[in-house]
Structure formats: C-alpha cells, structure tokens
Amino acid sequence: MTNPRLGLPNSARRLAKALGFSEVGIGDQLPNTLRQFARLLGKSLMRASYPNTLEELQMLMDGAPDIGGGGGYTASAVRIDGDTNTIERAAALAGVAESPVGMFSLWRKAAGTRRLVDNGNFLISQFGGGDGLSLYAENSDASEYVDASFDPAGFNDNAWHNLLMAWDADHVIGERVYQFYLDDVSLSPSAPDDSDNPCIIDYTAANWAILVGGSIFNMTDFEFDVADLFFAPGQYLDLSVEANRRKFISADGKPVDLGADGSTPTGTAPAVFFSGDATGFASNKGSGGAFVFTGALANAPTSPSD
C-alpha cells in the first residue's frame, strides 16, 4: 500500500480494504489495539499500541521490526582499555550553557566503574568502591552544588546494563529531581548532600573526559565494553513517564536507535554522543565538538542487543 493518508480509517472494514485484505470476518468496529487487529488478520505482531498512520501500520504489516522491542536496531559496542585509551576534549563543549537540567544514558558491560563523565565541575563517577555511583556538579562560583549518590546493584557484574539518568536542580534542597534507572528499574538516591538553594549547573568549563577507565582511588585499570553514550547538558525528559524511557530502552530491555546524532529522544542533538563500532565510535556525533581519542579501539565481542 502506498496511500500517504495521515489519518486512520474509522472502521476495521475500511482499514482492511485500505490494506488490501478481505474484510470478511472483521467487524465494523475498529479494534482497540494493533494486537487485536493482527489476530483478526492472522498476523503475529508484538507492538501493543495502535499506530498513528496507515503508513506506520503498513510498515508493521510488511514485516518491519517491532519498535517496542528495539525497532530492529542492533547497537555496535566497543571495548575500552582503561590502561591505554582516553577520550578527552581540552576545550569547553560547543553550544553548551549553564542549566539546572541534564540527561545521561549508557550501555555498559564491566566488572568495575570509574569516571563516566568528568570535567571537574561535573562528574558522574564511582565512589567508595562497589557499585556506587555519584552525580556531582557545581554552579559557576561553586556556591551551590549537586551531590547525589545511588547504588545500581549489579552494575559491575560484567553483564550488559543500561544506565539512564535525568536531573533537575532548579529547586531547593529536598525538592530537586533525580531520576536514575538501571535496566528500566528506578533507583532512589541515598540522601543527597545538596546545597540549600537551586543550582544552575556550570556545564561551560573546559577539559572534559569521557569513559575514564584509568586509576582512581588507587584502583587497577580495567577493560570494559560500551555502546551508545548519550550526555545532554541542558536537556530534560521526565523519566517517570514510561514513554520517555522507551526512547532509550525498549520494553524488553534492549537498545533503541537514538538517531545518527542522538537527537531522536528529545528532538535536539546532545552535546556528547558516542555510538558505532571501533571505526567511528570515538568521533563525537553530538553537537559539542570533537574529542581526542588515544590508543587502539576494538569492537566488543558482544552487544547489548544480543
């Protein structure tokens, strides 16, 4: 079917005719979900919600992948050697301003954690050993700060996991928004050690480092596998809304396509987006400018899409 019609027919009979199916056995009332319609047509489709257009439905009926299960997207993953690899930018991130909000997402397989993002003013990093992670950030004169820690149990079990974070510090202490998810399961931060007043985070400082696998707290360097790192200062989606989480992780726990520049979830490219295989991962596809990668990069033997 090539009908570019923007709306759906108002009955199952008309819908079936538009798709070239016999309407025999299909009632006059449009099914409430695509699953119901598929059963009537003898098809097997996994998507649970009804499509918005005939074209979208036709794609599914023609065998296009289920977007609720990753959309057919296969994430490429790379192996970072914490002893020899660095991903750094000496300058500030291009186009980034001070803001109370931000987002971060990463697929990762490792037996330990180091600094995921670091520039001194802003840090997502391991603290105190174990699985613990900390989000720390300051405003421009360090008079206000964010300091939220959380314990994503199992994050360092050498299996693939998705870490998804959003924060809004434009509130007084006790009212700031910290939304942390591991594999689509919400994590509650342990009592944040925040400053009292709203914090407008200074993302404008220079000297950014990404995926630092080297020594911190006198720990041994290590290897880890990563895919689709997304860091968006100044952007925010309410992750308590399931539909917003589905923009990063499918209902069955797999990666979804964030777009060539990472702009699909919010409509705006994040400052930092590392994605792809070993030939192109180290090239920042986001809007924040180029990073310098040192050392050899290899493809990981597995993918979070497996």
Notes on the protein architecture:
This protein has 306 residues and is mainly β. The protein has 4 helices and 15 strands. It is globular and about 45 Å long. The N terminus is likely disordered.
Q: Tell me the major beta sheet.
A: 8 strands, antiparallel
Distance between the termini: 33 Å
Reading off the top of the CATH hierarchy, the class of the largest domain is best stated as Mainly Beta
Please, what is the average pLDDT? 78
Tags for this entry?
single chain; 306 residues; 8-stranded antiparallel β-sheet; 7-stranded antiparallel β-sheet; globular
Question: What's a concise summary of this model?
Answer:
This protein is mainly beta and 306 residues long.
Helices and strands in order:
Elements: H1 12-18, H2 34-41, H3 54-61, E1 78-81, E2 86-89, E3 101-109, E4 115-118, E5 122-126, E6 133-138, E7 145-150, E8 160-168, E9 177-182, E10 185-187, E11 208-212, E12 223-233, H4 242-245, E13 272-274, E14 292-294, E15 298-299
Antiparallel strand pairs: 1-12, 1-15, 2-11, 2-14, 3-8, 3-12, 4-5, 4-11, 5-6, 6-7, 8-9, 9-10, 12-13
